[in-house]
Amino acid sequence: MSRPSTVDYTLYLVTDRSLSRGRSTLEVVRSAVSGGVTCVQLREKEASTRTFIEEARAIKVLLDDKGIPLIINDRVDVALAVGAAGVHLGQSDMHIRDARRLLPPEALIGISAESLEDALAAERGGADYIGVSPVFATPTKTDTALPLGLDGVRKIRSAVGIPVVGIGGIGLANAAEVMMAGADGIAVVSAIVAADDPQKAAKALKKKIG
Questions:
Q1: What does the pLDDT profile of the chain (210 residues) look like in tens digits?
Q2: Where is the Thiamine phosphate synthase/TenI domain positioned along the sequence (predicted)?
């Protein structure tokens, strides 16, 4: 089976239980998806492996019913355990060649690119999409490189042929600008996860980016 070429990255949710204001990740995802989220990345930095897998399975059932892909952050083992659509890997995570060797051929692999060089290397390595990170300064991750800005998005978009998703400091005020700079989608964390109403937040973002 070949990897899917029609994944909709337009509104890409990245979860973060520390920002969910006491709501479960499943609850936030359900609400966000009902508001128009098109792709979900489950990110769990503190949970045990068993908890991560249990949560991923529950979320996958919800997403499968709606035809939305579940991407697992960092953890190839968790993606394999639950049959997720794929993984998203940072520059210090497992190398894409090793992940590709372990995952089934149809699995998606996204790579975070902190520079044009990262993006070009990811495409050469067989990445399915690139997360341009960070576009703007963001409080949700403290280990990121300096913001690439809209110019960075434009440069990467013009240099690679695979989908490009902007992440980092993106919200209602600047989402449209990121898309106009050439991104195929925006990835958001706090703009949805920490919102009073994740469904309304997702709807507003979806409307903003058309």
A1: 346 558 999 999 999 999 999 999 999 999 999 999 999 999 999 999 999 999 999 999 999 999 999 999 999 999 999 999 999 999 999 999 999 999 999 999 999 999 999 999 999 999 999 999 999 998 766 666 899 999 999 999 999 999 999 999 999 999 999 999 999 999 999 999 999 999 999 999 999 998
A2: 11-192
Q: What residue numbers does the annotated binding site for Mg(2+) cover?
A: 74, 93
Is position 118 within any domain?
A: no
Domain region containing 203: 11-111+167-209
Catalytic residue, candidates 17, 30, 43, 155: 43
Q: Is residue 37 part of a domain?
A: yes
- In this prediction the pTM is 0.95
The answer to whether residue 43 is catalytic is yes
**68, part of any domain:** yes
Quickly count: other Cβ atoms within 10 Å of residue 200's Cβ. Answer: 13
